[in-house]
Amino acid sequence: MITPVDLETTVFRRGFRGYNRAEVQEFMARITHDYEHLYRENIELKEKIEELQNSLNQYQIMEETLRNAMLLAQETAEEVKNAAKNQAELIIRDAEYKGERIKSHIQEEIQNEVQKLAALKNQVEFFRCQFKSFLKGLLDIAENQMELKIDWTNKQLNNILFEGENKAQKEEHKPVAETAVTGESRPESQSKTG
Description:
Layout: H1 4-9, H2 21-173, H3 176-182, H4 188-193
């Protein structure tokens, strides 16, 4: 590429009927000035492009870092979500297991209490039967006692009656002389009642 210095130092050979030297020099000076301006501007623009390219590279690196961070955050969020879901499932399963154990324990206690109640009912029924038998035995004993008393009273009455009849019969068969000795005389009707 031609630099502005190259333009300033360029010398044209003169020809027989060449161009006007002053006009060519003036034109060359303008071209050199414009070319120098464009050359500097081109260098500045290249530097600016390089700076912008560096900034763009930095932004691209930042963008890549942010993208990776977002992906990592999404993966982490997904992992946290899955871990929370798994933890919730574990808690639910544990609660269900504990609930089943408590339910089973309560059912066992209820079954034990039902068995105790049945045993108590059996004991009450056994006691009732024993008490009933005991009362029946007492009633039988009392009835036997009453029958014995009645029998004994009847026997005593019968003995008394029998003795009375025997006495009366003996007195009927005594000779009249005996009655005269004792001084007693009874009519027949009195001795029978007597």
